[in-house]
Amino acid sequence: MSKIDKDLNAVLDISEPKRTDVLAPIDLSPEKMRSDDTTILDDFDQVRANLDTINKKGVEVFERLAMVAAETEDSRIIESMSKLIDTLTKSNMAALEAHERKKKVIGIDKPTDEASKLQQNITTQNILVGTTDDIINSLRKKNGN
Q: pTM of this prediction?
């Protein structure tokens, strides 16, 4: 931070914003690069956490841009908002795709034996709409009388 910035901060009574890590760091060590289920599930969880962070920060930025756009009516800010909406939409879609991929990896979409047994025991019942005379006539025709 330069001397001018420090002086301005002192005059305006503004503290320097704290820097925070937006994304969780990714460990690329060989033991983390294994392809066992736990590591894969951890990776999915980390991807999900990163996408959630991106979405939350994006919403905060969007709210700030909306306030500035309302005050200034600057076309560049409105264009930035449009691009941010597109980026946030893509980020949300990526989160959904990651969720679907995780379900495929852990096998949620596969039918269980119990579910397939229940599916085999389904009975379809037909309902006849009409009078009792219609039923009697239908049975007589079926029996050949």
A: 0.47
The alpha-helical segments, DSSP class H, found in 31-112 are 37-72, 75-106
Tell me what the mean pLDDT of segment 29-53 comes to.
72
Dist. CA 118–CA 106, nearest whole Å: 22
Q: Which amino acid is located at 82 in the chain?
A: S
Rounded CA gap, 61 and 98, in Å? 24
Considering the domain boundaries, does residue 96 fall inside one? yes
Give dist(CA 97, CA 104) in Å, integer: 11
- Whether 76 is covered by a domain: the verdict is yes
Q: In which residue are the tokens 């679907």 written?
A: 100
- DSSP code of residue 36: S
